[in-house]
Write a structure and sequence with these properties.
TPR repeat, two-stranded antiparallel sheet, 366 residues, TPR_rpt, 9 helices, Tetratricopeptide repeat protein, TPR-like_helical_dom_sf, eleven-stranded antiparallel sheet
Length: 366
C-alpha cells in the first residue's frame, strides 16, 4: 500500500512540475514578445522623430506583428502616415487598432484624425466622404462632438438636396420661358433661404453659355453668360410676396439693351394676382428710351398707353401743356380705351428695368 501511495505521489509531482514548466514557458514567451515589440516600438518612435516615415512604418508593423494589441504602434504608424500627407491611411490604421484593442488612447486620436479628415473633405466638396468618415468615427467612439458634426452635416445634405431640386426646377422653367412658374418659385421660402446663403451671385449650371445667375438681392437672370457678363436675349425677374418685376429682352455688356418688355405684377395679401402691366419698346442701359407701349390689365379690363421716354424720363404728351398741374406733374399718356385713365408723372423718376431704374410706371396710373 505504501509503495502504491509513493508512486501516485511521485506522478502528481511530475504532473505539477510539467504544468508549472508550461506556465513558466508561456509567461516567459509573453515577456519576450512584450520585450521585442517594445524594441520595435522604440525604433519606430525614433524614426518618426527623425521624419523617416517609411522606416517608422516598417518598425511599427513589426511591433504589431509581434503584439497585435500594441496601442502605441497603431498611433505611431498613423502619425507616420499623417507625416507622409496620407490622412486616409492614418484613419485606416487607427480603425484597425480600435478593432484589435478599443483603448481610450486610440479613441482620443481617432476623434482628432477623423475630425481633421472630415474638414478636409468638406473643404474639397466631398460631402459623401465627409459623412462616411464621421459615421465611422461615431460608430467607434460614440463621441458627442462627432455626433453633433454628423447631425449638422446630415441637415446640410438635406438642405443641399432641396436646393438642388429648386435649381433644377428654376432651370427647367427658364428654359421653357415659363415666367409664371419662375415667379411662383421665386416667392417660395426655399428660394428665400437659398439667396440668404449667396455671396453676391450664384451661377447654375455654369458661368458661361445659357445658364441661370441668382443674385443676393433675389434677382434671377436666365440667358447668355460670358464669364458672368450677361449677353443676348434673356429673362430677368425679381419677385416678392407683393409684386413681381420681369424683363424679357436683349442684353449687351451686362445691361438690358435693345428691344424688350417689362412686366409688373401686383398681388393681394392672399397671393392672388391683382394687376398686370407690360411696357414694351427700346431700352438703353436698362432704361426706357424711345416710343413705348404700355398695356394695363386691371379688374378684367385692358388699358393701352403710347408715350415717349428719353433715358428713362417720361416725356409730356404732345399738346398736353394745358394739363400741367401746379406741382409740376404732367400727362404722359391717355388710355385709348378710356380717356379718363391718364398716366401722370413729375419727371423725377427714372423708368426701365428693375435694378436699373427707380420708377414703376404702373404705380403712376391714375
Amino acid at each position: 500500500m505504501r509503495t502504491r501511495f509513493k508512486v501516485l505521489l511521485i506522478a502528481l509531482f511530475l504532473i505539477l512540475g510539467f504544468a508549472g514548466g508550461i506556465c513558466l514557458a508561456i509567461v516567459s514567451a509573453d515577456k519576450v514578445d512584450s520585450y521585442l515589440s517594445g524594441r520595435k516600438l522604440s525604433l519606430g518612435d525614433r524614426y518618426l522623430n527623425e521624419q523617416e516615415y517609411e522606416k517608422a512604418i516598417l518598425a511599427y508593423q513589426s511591433a504589431i506583428e509581434i503584439d497585435p494589441r500594441q496601442v502605441e504602434a497603431y498611433i505611431g504608424m498613423a502619425d507616420a502616415y499623417k507625416g507622409m500627407k496620407n490622412p486616409e491611411m492614418a484613419a485606416e490604421l487607427l480603425k484597425l487598432g480600435w478593432e484589435a484593442v478599443p483603448d481610450e488612447r486610440l479613441k482620443t486620436r481617432i476623434i482628432r484624425v477623423y475630425t481633421d479628415l472630415y474638414k478636409q473633405y468638406m473643404d474639397e466638396g466631398e460631402y459623401e466622404k465627409a459623412h462616411d468618415i464621421l459615421t465611422d468615427a461615431y460608430e467607434m467612439t460614440r463621441d458627442s462632438e462627432i455626433r453633433k458634426l454628423l447631425d449638422e452635416l446630415e441637415t446640410r445634405q438635406e438642405q443641399s438636396q432641396a436646393q438642388q431640386e429648386l435649381l433644377e426646377q428654376l432651370l427647367k422653367a427658364a428654359e421653357a420661358s415659363d415666367t409664371l412658374k419662375l415667379v411662383t418659385l421665386l416667392r417660395t421660402t426655399e428660394y428665400s433661404e437659398f439667396i440668404a446663403g449667396i455671396d453676391r451671385v450664384f451661377y447654375y449650371p455654369q458661368k458661361n453659355g445659357e445658364a441661370i445667375a441668382i443674385y443676393d438681392n433675389g434677382c434671377l437672370y436666365y440667358g447668355g453668360l460670358s464669364e458672368g457678363s450677361r449677353e443676348g436675349r434673356a429673362i430677368w425677374i425679381k419677385a416678392s410676396s407683393g409684386k413681381a418685376n420681369i424683363y424679357e429682352g436683349l442684353w449687351q455688356k451686362d445691361k438690358p439693351e435693345g428691344q424688350g418688355m417689362v412686366s409688373h405684377c401686383t398681388y393681394t395679401a392672399g397671393g392672388t394676382l391683382s394687376t398686370v402691366s407690360t411696357t414694351s419698346g427700346t431700352f438703353r442701359a436698362g432704361l426706357e428710351n424711345g416710343n413705348m407701349t404700355m398695356l394695363v390689365y386691371d379688374q378684367g379690363r385692358t388699358y393701352t398707353y403710347y408715350y415717349r421716354a428719353i433715358t428713362g424720363i417720361l416725356q409730356p404728351m404732345e399738346n398736353s401743356a394745358r394739363y400741367v398741374d401746379t406741382d409740376g406733374s404732367y400727362i404722359v399718356a391717355v388710355s385709348i380705351e378710356d380717356s379718363t385713365m391718364q398716366c401722370i408723372d413729375q419727371g423725377d423718376l427714372i423708368y426701365g428695368v428693375y435694378g436699373f431704374a427707380s420708377g414703376d410706371i404702373q404705380s403712376q396710373i391714375q
